[in-house]
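Troubleshooting entry. The earlier prediction with magnesium ion gave an output that would not parse, so I re-checked the input for stray whitespace and re-submitted. Clean input:
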Amino acid sequence: MKELFQTIRKAFRLEGEILEILPLTDGGIHGTYQIRLDTGKIYIFQQINTGVFRNPDAVMRNIRKTASYLKEHAPEMRILHFYQTGQGEYLFQNWRVMDAIDGYSLKTCTNLHQIHQAGKAFGAFRKAVSGMDSAGLEQTISGFHDTRAYFQNLLNLKSSLPEMEILRSWQEQACFVCDCYRKGELPFQVTHGDMKCSNLLFDRQTNQPTAVIDWDTVMSGMPVYDFGDAVRSFASNVSSSEPDLSRVGISMPKFEAFATGWLSEHPDRNLLIPAVFSVTVELAVRYLTDYLQGNIYFRITHPEQNLIRARNQIRLAQEILKHQSEMEEFL
Ligand code: GN1
Ligand code: MG
């Protein structure tokens, strides 16, 4: 492994010898490593999963376009810095290199003040990209967040699992938001695409958000799904890999903390709450599909993991339904 990292280090013209290689295993898709050189600098080396992102160059083009837009329109926003190879490329054999940002991420968050700040940070990202033309971005995963398409894939598979029937019964309700966009009732806009709790970095000293990370899925999409994804992960009591379903639930104080932060930056309330249910059910559908197809999309550490994740998200969706009118009233 060290030899490979030496080759990558040289390709990106980084000075210094490698002292430490630390695998970062939180991401569900790519292979990610933190590399410390003897110069004291710390980098992230990441191999793009080309099974998921078929065109890694398009991913980098989207990220760079978004970064240059934000540099101009939201200069206060922290932007990830990617290195170029000697040939001026951002990828070397599908590996990319960025500066490590000092900070920490959370799989779940319990501190209401931090959740409120997270709502502001994600809401500010939403506001910052809202003026950008989404037609300039490439669709790097076909059918990404197309809830109908995910349902069709799942329901084409044969399975006698009870989870299949629960999901089938939710199909129309879960596809409502997605259908509104597809009918042209709302415009597709630039979205982050993966606004979950662990994609926000907090500063180690101040515990304030410092950077919205993981811009791989920045593309034209449904902005309300960004809100939905963030509530799904921030307002949840446990992480999506929790197997004990009795612990899965949604916290109204957490929801309120997040939503007030978001709305202070971007006050459009239309379809925000239905999107929380939709994106949660969609993720359950995606996990169950992957489980039934032999775990070809999400990284797993044991064979039942995607089924456990699907069950977790189904339970969370049930809890979201119970609180839906309360959430609407709060908005
Ligand atoms: C994946 O790679 P990661 O963990 O940032 C997935 C998201 C899911 C998320 C669930 C490209 O994101 O859509 O919501 O897992 N990313 C892709 O944790 O499919
Ligand atoms: Mg991601």
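This one parsed fine. The chain is about 45% helix and 10% strand.
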